[in-house]
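Journal club side-thread
Mid-discussion, someone asked how the predicted structure for our own chain would compare to the paper's figures. Pasting it here so we can look after the session.
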Amino acid sequence: MPLYAGVCETNITPPQGVWMAGYAFRPRGCTHVHDELHARAAVFNDGSCAVAILAMDLIALPNDLVARIREGIASAIGLDPKAIMLNCSHTHGGPNLGLYTSMGSRDEAYVDVLVRKLVGMTRQAAETMKPAQLAYGRAPVQIGVNRRQTLNSTGATVLGENYAGPVAPYIDVLSMAQPSGGAFGLLFSHACHGTTLGGDNLRITADFCGYAADHVRSEGKMGLTPLFLQGCCGNINPLRRSTYISAAYNGRILGEAALHAWRDATALYDDEPLSFAERTVELPFLPPREIGVVDAEIKDWERKAAEFETTNNMGALLHAQGMVAYCRTERAMAEAGPDAWHGQFPIQVLSIAGAKFVGLPAEVFVQYALDFDIQTDQPVFTLGCTNGALNYLPTAADYPLGGYEVEQAHRYYDSLMYTAECESIVRNAVYDMLGVDKPDLTPYSL
């Protein structure tokens, strides 16, 4: 049986008033919809195996939604849940789905509709599959900059602009076309935080990711369905920021690069079978602080929360409540002891016509993608914010420098921070799943 593929999309814009995710201290829920959010699905079937990739204009999925969506799709079209890859664009202009406790609650009615839409969309993609020829391409592009800047004056690492730091200066695409030549779908991936707009933005937006998809659709003609997949953006921010003009600019640059890569793409192997695999590794956490220290911080945050409640400062109140929740988690971990200081980390790999899609449930630093790309002969799409987002995943070399991603961000995930050892654990698992023979295990550099 030849390879078949189908695509479909749906609108997943939330209602006005939902709490947004990505930035703490937003004073209220969203006030308007600037541009709509979408989800798109691509389903592939070669007669022996079937896989699905969903691309969503969302920040990230909590574990319970990953399970609900996968189970719903599996029930609807008969896929193995581990064959379903759920990638989020990591826009900071979308709804809070319950992952970030310091940024407000999630709208359960919206979440129920979201799950039904994602399942229905994927079912329709599966029901409209047609013979497909796949092609892979890459083009140079860079809309972001490494954001981990170390200040010469103090030695502190801040969220800034590190022009010497690593980035992934390219875009990867996988196109789907009928044997007659009519292209109908384009997966495209780049690594950059969905943070053109800042925390002062209270309007729903897909950020540059949505603008890029719109550009691919409008300029690519031929009825292309565009699926943006977020790469390893943990330490990458857009260079141009703060305005919707900048978001549109970033998206247009990225979308044009995607079209360039598509037009120069090379056909992939017709005889390469589809496959999928998922492996869960245990990642160790850094030890929690002493219980007395944590208790003191809990009291401090509770005092602040009471003050913010009397002044009706909702953004600060939610943040304080989220920090109380984190500290209680840290206290429970301290009480449980070292046997509890680790967490499960599922790694997924799909193989589609020889192209590899690596799904990692974290805000992953870009060095991982650069490494897997070099050490694998076949095209590799290394994707962060996939099948959830559990934490940041820095490199071991980043720990001595500290900074937000290493020292603070884990609190928003209500989790202890991973240890530097996690780099080698994740790398070795991915090498094995990709079939890398005699990988270079040199630690990543900055």
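Post-session note: The first strand starts at residue 4 and ends at 11.
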